[in-house]
Design goal:
The protein has a domain of about 220 residues: Dipeptide-binding Protein, domain 3. It is an alpha+beta fold and about 525 residues long. The chain has 17 helices and 23 strands. About 30% of the residues lie in helices and about 20% in strands. It is globular. A hairpin with a 2-residue loop joins strand 6 and strand 7. A 6-stranded mixed β-sheet has the order 14-20-13-19-17-18, sandwiched between helices. Strands 1-10-9-8 form a 4-stranded mixed β-sheet.
Length: about 525
């Protein structure tokens, strides 16, 4: 399959002999090829990565997460202080920020924008990230006070995400339900140009921009005059476009073509230094087939993640034993060492202990019932992943029946809860972020689709969420990781590497990786 793809790419490139190098064209714009579009670009009404990668270019956040995915740096806020009880954050804002409209941004705008995020009337799917807000208000033009009902140890990390970008109230009110569809208003290094849904989105440079975060050498304005996001759903076409110079870069390079892309003299590959995106299989623990932790752990021992990376991910991922990637804020190495690594013999012993002997047909049975799992997932790349897992489980006598659905209906099928296990992939910014979203019993039946209701887990989540010191938070999250590893509620499959493929005419390229978003604000990006 790999040779066929490479051959196809070569043929495409030979057919593009008329193309002239970008250096000769002296283009002032770049084209970014991606797999899918977003449904809208309103940060308070979407959780889509496809929206976030654009929103970080259109708007700014109070604080910025550094390249290490751990350290908090200034953004629109120059500095901040936190009260001893963790209930009051006071942000001192820059006084030189302007929206794309030219209007000056003040603390009143920031307060309005963040209050819109948490307003129940907005019905934001991510409002929980803002914590239990009492009030967000301005005390003067450059001072913002953020008051909480309980401490939120992860607040600054959450405020660095695109859900917390600052919006132009006048644009929101003028566009109404068309905000993020027919137009936008923000303070970012780029401004809204034109959107043709499902095809392309054009952004233009915000010429007045001078307030970029200190993680960039260039604080503004952007080096690029225009950014054109184009949708190319076909994997091979995206890779070929970069190799042929039709696209300047793609944050979604086809894994099957990565070897050819790495070898190509006009292509560069960059990756985030700390990617945090997990592909996993989750067990619905109240289903009879997987209610026994010994069965879940046996399944985890049976899956060869290293082979999965080689055969399905073409080496472009890391085998996952732990829930969190090493280096993540509050990652616990000791807890992760207890993960169920590849050990088919241990898997067989656990199944025998759990009372599932091997039947004459090669599958495990008890009281005339076969040990069989119904697994739900999304159509597309998940098919090969689940075929590999299915083959591994057959080796220990466990049947896996796979149902894959188009994304348009897959979420509804998952909400129906008629499965023993499911597969998903998830971005995160910290231990508290990932574990708090998926394992809190208050989030049953979604996104806690495992129906994991555990008092110890809830207590540890609460301790980590309300901790007043980094040590207290890390201790709670380490204990939580150990608890979840022991219970094997998830089977971690791979930690994705999130590579970016770009033409060599692009310089200043560095992959950020925040919530899976490669380019972030793209302030250092330029053309040779």
């Amino acid at each position: 399959m790999g040779r066929a793809l490479v051959g196809w790419v070569v043929a495409v490139m030979l057919g593009l002999g008329h193309w002239m190098p970008a250096a000769a064209q002296q283009r002032a714009s770049i084209t970014i090829a991606r797999a899918i579009d977003a449904d809208r670009y309103d940060p308070h009404r979407t959780a889509a990565r496809a929206a976030g990668e654009v929103l970080h270019m259109l708007a700014d956040t109070l604080v910025t997460l550094d390249w290490d995915q751990r350290s908090i740096r200034p953004g629109l806020a120059r500095e901040w202080e936190v009260s001893e009880d963790g209930l009051r954050y006071t942000f001192r804002l820059r006084d030189d920020v302007r929206f794309c409209s030219g209007r000056e941004m003040t603390a009143v705008d920031v307060a309005w924008s963040l209050s819109r995020w948490v307003d129940p009337a907005t019905r934001s799917p991510t409002a929980w990230r803002a914590g239990r807000v009492v009030r967000i208000h301005a005390t003067d033009a450059t001072t913002l006070v953020y008051e909480l009902a309980e401490p939120h140890a992860d607040l600054l990390h959450q405020l660095s995400l695109f859900f917390g970008v600052v919006l132009d109230r006048e644009a929101v009110e003028r566009l109404g339900e068309g905000f993020g569809i027919r137009g936008f208003g923000g303070t970012g290094p780029f401004c809204w140009g034109e959107w043709v849904p499902g095809s392309r989105l054009t952004l233009v440079r915000h010429a007045a921009y001078r307030w970029g975060p200190p993680i960039y050498a260039n604080r503004g304005p952007a080096e690029i005059d225009r950014v054109v996001w184009t949708v190319q759903a076909d994997d091979a076409a995206r890779g070929a476009a970069v190799m042929a110079g039709q696209a300047d870069l793609t944050p979604y390079p086809p894994l099957a073509m990565m070897e050819a892309l790495r070898r190509h003299r006009l292509v560069q590959i960059v990756e985030p230094s700390q990617p945090q995106w997990l592909a996993f299989l989750g067990f619905k623990v109240d289903r009879p087939q997987v209610a026994d932790v010994r069965v879940r752990r046996a399944i985890a021992h049976a899956v060869d993640r290293a082979a999965l990376v080689r055969q399905v991910y073409f080496g472009e991922a890391h085998p996952a034993i732990s829930l969190l990637a090493p280096g993540t804020l509050d990652y616990s190495a000791s807890a992760s060492s207890s993960g169920a690594g590849y050990d088919p013999a241990a898997a067989v012993a656990l199944l025998e202990e759990a009372g599932w002997p091997l039947g004459a047909d090669g599958f495990r049975q008890r009281n005339g019932q076969r040990l069989s799992l119904d697994v739900y997932g999304f159509a597309g790349p998940w098919q090969r992943v689940l075929e590999a897992v299915q083959a591994d489980l057959a080796q220990i006598g466990v049947e896996m029946r796979v149902s894959l659905f188009d994304p348009a209906i897959a979420w509804g099928r998952l909400a129906g809860q008629d499965f023993d296990a499911f597969v998903l992939s998830a971005p995160y910014v910290s231990a508290g972020d990932l574990l708090g979203l998926y394992f809190d019993s208050r989030r049953i039946p979604t996104p806690n689709r495992m129906n994991w209701r555990d008092a110890e887990t809830d207590q540890l989540l609460a301790r980590g969420r309300t901790a007043l010191t980094a040590d207290e938070r890390a201790t709670a999250h380490a204990a939580l990781q150990a608890r979840l590893q022991e219970a094997t509620v998830w089977l971690p499959l791979v930690h994705e590497r999130l590579p970016v493929a770009a033409h060599t005419r692009i310089t200043g390229l560095r992959a950020h990786g925040l919530y899976g978003i490669a380019l972030h604000q793209a302030l250092d990006l330029r053309l040779r």
